[in-house]
Write a structure and sequence with these properties.
Shape: elongated
Radius of gyration: 41 Å
Structural class: alpha+beta
CATH topology of the domain at 11-158: Butyryl-CoA Dehydrogenase, subunit A, domain 3
Strand content: 15-25%
CATH architecture of the domain at 11-158: Up-down Bundle
Distance between the termini: 69 Å
CATH class of the domain at 11-158: Mainly Alpha
Strand order of the largest sheet: 2-1-3
Low-confidence stretches: 1-7, 163-170
Oligomer: single chain
Number of helices: 4
Number of strands: 9
Length: 235
């Protein structure tokens, strides 16, 4: 069954809850992917040795880098827990955007750090030469985790209730003590007096009380015995 939106095209509570739950799952998925990437190699280099076949060496993050990524995965997991337990509020959204943006920066910084360490470890022996450095298996789940974090943050933001502006507030009228005048900011203005409701029309009856005049003809008043219609027409 399709969820019915509220007035103004705003999503219904059911739709907002679905988005929030999906955001929670994406956050948890991002945490799992980042933990996985922390223990996989991030770069690989191909070493060419004269007279010997090429060899491929992979490089993982340092212990500090692993701890750093696992800590960020914990942040994503905590965001997923909060998104599942409560409504999206401003503080949660700001935290989610900060974590997601910084995760993208972290991937670039960590990859460059591994790359720099790898270059520094190369020997100066002319018989050993390394000119091919490429991303390895650990970079892919890190990227997937960062993308999942951004998607989760967008879903979380879309689950918020957007307040509808009710227009400018109308200032309360300042009335005189007797309630007959109001102050408009420059002068006293009379308060409009509502016209009294029209008095109900009094039925015009014939002298004997058995006929009533409706404005165009005499109508018989319900009675047991029929009586003649009065001949006189009210002037």
């Amino acid at each position: 069954m399709n969820a019915v939106g509220t007035s103004g095209g705003a999503p219904s509570a059911e739709v907002r809850d679905r988005r929030r739950i999906r955001a929670s799952r994406f956050f948890i998925g991002a945490a799992v992917a980042i933990v996985l990437s922390a223990f996989l190699p991030w770069t690989q280099e191909t070493i060419k040795v004269e007279g010997v076949a090429e060899a491929t060496i992979t490089h993982k993050l340092s212990d500090g880098g692993v701890v750093y990524l696992v800590a960020f995965a914990g942040l994503y997991g905590w965001l997923g827990y909060l998104a599942n337990r409560q409504r999206a509020h401003r503080g949660l959204l700001i935290g989610a955007w900060v974590v997601s943006a910084w995760m993208v920066v972290n991937i670039i910084l960590l990859f460059n750090a591994v790359n720099d360490v790898q270059k520094a470890s190369q020997t100066g022996d002319s018989s050993t030469f390394s000119d091919t450095i490429a991303p390895s298996a650990g970079l892919l789940p890190a990227l997937i985790g960062a993308i999942a974090g951004v998607v989760a943050t967008i879903l979380l933001q879309r689950s918020r209730v957007r307040s509808v502006s009710a227009g400018p507030a109308v200032a309360a009228a300042v009335l005189s003590p007797d309630g007959r005048w109001s102050w408009d900011g420059a002068a006293w203005q009379p308060v409009p007096v509502a016209a009294p409701p029209p008095a109900p029309a009094t039925a015009l009856l014939s002298p004997d009380g058995r006929w009533s005049w409706d404005g165009s003809a005499w109508l018989a008043v319900p009675a047991v015995d029929a009586v003649p219609v009065p001949a006189a027409v009210p002037g």
